[in-house]
Amino acid sequence: MSPETSPAPAPASGAQLPPPPSLADRIKTVAANPLCGVVVALVVIFVLSCLLSAHFLTAFNMKIIARSLAFVGLVTIGQAILMILGELDLSVGAIGGLSGVAGGLFMVQFGLDPWLSLVLCLALGTACGLLNGVLITQLRLHSLVLTIGMAGVYGGANLVLTKGVAITGIPGAISFLGRGMMFGLPVPFVILLVCLAIVSFVMLRTPLGRYVYAIGSNKAAARMLGIRVDAIRICAFASAGFLSALAGIVMVARLGTAQPSIGDTWVLAPIAAAVIGGVATTGGLGSPFGAVLGAVIIGIIENVIVLFGISPYWQSIVSGGIVVAAISFDSVARRYFNREA
Amino acid sequence: MKKALLAAATLLCAPLSAQAATDTGPMRFVMIPKAVHPWFDKANNGAQAAAALLSKATGRQITVEYRAPQTADVSTQNDIIERAIATHPDGLILDLLDEKGNRATMQEAVEEKIPMTVFDSLPPEGMNITAVGADFCEQGTLAAERLAKLIGNKGEVAIMMGVPTAPNHALRARCELKVFSKYPDIKVVATGIDNDSIETAQKQASAIMQAHPDLAGWVACDAAGPVGIGQAIRESGKVGKVKEVGLDNLNDMLQLIRDGVVDSSASSRPEMQGYWAVIAAWQKALGQQTPKNIDTGIDIITKKTLSK
Questions:
Q1: Residue in B closest to A314 by C-alpha
Q2: I want to staple A245 with a disulfide (CB 3.0 to 4.6 A). Which of A5, A99, A196, B135 is the partner?
Q3: Distance between CA atoms of B242 and A333, rounded to whole angstroms?
Q4: 3-state secondary structure of B216
Q5: Among A160, A257, A267, A305, which would you mutate to test the B interface (most chain B Cβ atoms within 10 Å of its Cβ)?
Q6: Structural domains present in chain A
């Protein structure tokens, strides 16, 4: 799904056609695809889960995996765009939480129309992301450091607005977004699929997407080529803010209350998912689709940990171990391919 | 107390003996607390004791699986509840983080015909669920009243608020404030937030005691907070000068009371809550009527009661 997998140019007219690739060549081509590893891992984990737990492959369990994936998945898409760009945003969870409670306030305390509140909430999340981008690009700050600080600002604003107390009385009009079903799938999951399709199209089929990969590969070179590096970076942060806000408001619709704790767990998991899904921490490589596959792997592991009744004290070790393994694999694989090249 | 509980459980078993004799298959309950925390480990100990006792009394294998969320977050807890529902247990024993935020997920359990019992929290309105626990407001009120008495109904006091988003912590804080407002000579000069972390509570308490050198006493709203406060009192050399009435019965808390750093603790009974939650869940699974509330009460733990 990344640009390096785009089809080869057609041979010039009159040139001799190369012999058709052998089966071994085809396997090598498939194995070289950055998504191959994550797909294989996903299939192995899925099959093992089916074999080891009778409760895993049931319609109810698939529904809950899909729905819980949607929230982390939306944030993961935004984080993946930033990571491909060579950036990182540690405030995405706080933006999701702030946008969610702001949406709740608009609906309950200000009595605004739920759908207008949803739009305002998305605008707020986009504005928060935009602010991150502007500060990073204009003050030449490192995104990691700036967004640690901004996570405190957004998280603090969340507490100021709510005084730490959940906002209840969310109108039922938007509950469909969090609890409903569409085409036999949970609505949050459908929202994730739509967002993933749009972002994948932009990243792989438009100049803007190619610029993102170019900036992630070499920012200085991209600037020399005339790419508006800072504008695209700001755009990417705003997109991540929008997607976090969308996850936040869909979570509000799911819970039926605007909890100040929304987003608290959306910081580490999306980064881990992106890395597992083949997005390089140094930028320029990977795809949002791969990152979401990484989120699926994490989601299935979290699901089976509970299905198997693993002690809660071991759960952190398992999930943390997966992150370390994924990052190590990413590093080793890139060193191997660099040597091959 | 164990003997009394054994006798009570045996009595409860008696009317069900006919049903128990016909159905001897294993029964499995899933217990989901608010988060990983020593207080819930104590509740789990009580739950396991109840399961062992019921297994012995009925001859059926009765197990309680303990599945704690890593963080006290409603959506994380909902995910774990849903995954537990997927395993179709005989009953769910839940400590709800927010009955409104948990409601949609609990409705799924109702649709899957899985009976539920809650402990240490209140069930959503309109749901026929037994609640096992103590009165949080009463717990905060008892602690605040005791502190007021200790400081002679006058002086500066501070409250450690716990996790601001936890409804039970917020309720205790409100009730403590209400008590202090009754005494015109008691002034609440500071409030800290410890997020249920001993380390954070210690830092906050140290800073507050620096800022208010005339502080006369402390109360808290969670289990970790009073331990951190006690450590800060000891470190700052104010043992005896600054009084503290804590909450709950974590081992560190009990040691601080034994050492004379903390006067006492208004403690809920986590083991008993876990125990009776399993008893209620088991009865529900057998189709028996269960009470709406089981009040497990509050202990006032002092150096004297600990020495008994």
A1: B70
A2: A99
A3: 59
A4: strand
A5: A257
A6: 37-331 (1.10.3470)
The answer to whether B59 touches B20, Cβ cutoff 8 Å, is yes
- Give the homologous superfamily in CATH for domain B136-268: Response regulator (3.40.50.2300)
Q: CATH homologous superfamily for B2-134+270-300?
A: Response regulator (3.40.50.2300)
- Selecting from A159, A179, A251 the residue whose C-beta is nearest the C-beta of B164 gives A159
B144-162: per-residue pLDDT in tens? 999 999 999 999 999 999 8
For residue B83, the chain A residues in CB contact (below 8 A) are 61, 64, 303, 306-307
**Mind listing the pLDDT tens digit for each residue in B191-216?**
988 887 888 899 889 999 999 999 99
* Cβ-Cβ contacts under 8 Å, A252 against chain B: none
Q: Where are the domains of chain B?
A: 2-134+270-300, 136-268
The string of pLDDT tens digits covering residues A21-33 is 777 777 666 666 7
- Find the closest chain B residue to A68 by CA distance: B79
Banded model confidence at residue A282, pLDDT cuts 50, 70, 90: confident
Q: What is the pLDDT of residues B94-107, one digit of tens each?
A: 999 888 889 999 99
Quick check: B75 and A265 CB within 8 A?
yes
Which string of DSSP letters, residue by residue, matches A166-221?
Answer: -B----GGGHHHHH-EETTEEHHHHHHHHHHHHHHHHHHHSHHHHHHHHHHH-HHH
Tell me the chain B residues in contact with residue A301 when contact means C-beta distances shorter than 8 Å.
none
